[in-house]
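Table S2 (text version). Query chain:
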Amino acid sequence: MLTQRSGLIVWVNDLKPAKNLERFGSIHYMSKKMHYVVMYIHADKLDETVRNIQKLPYVKKVERSFRNEIKTEYSRNVPDKTRSYTV
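Corresponding structure-token output:
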């Protein structure tokens, strides 16, 4: 059974201690240039985990990812114009 996950973007001062974020969830990506970490955590523990991450000394800001709330199923209401042209 799949558990619901939520994405977090954690802005950090330094990436060396940011590796310790692994204890809160799974790290998906770490940007060396822009100093942020993309990670996934369990959705039912979201608020508690965000509070704990914000208390860490090397964390600047924590943002929630809204990717799972974006509509990904599209309807085709516009007719296909490529079929109306004939040679």
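Notes on Table S2: The radius of gyration is 19 Å. Residues 5-69 form a domain with the Alpha-Beta Plaits fold (CATH 3.30.70.80).
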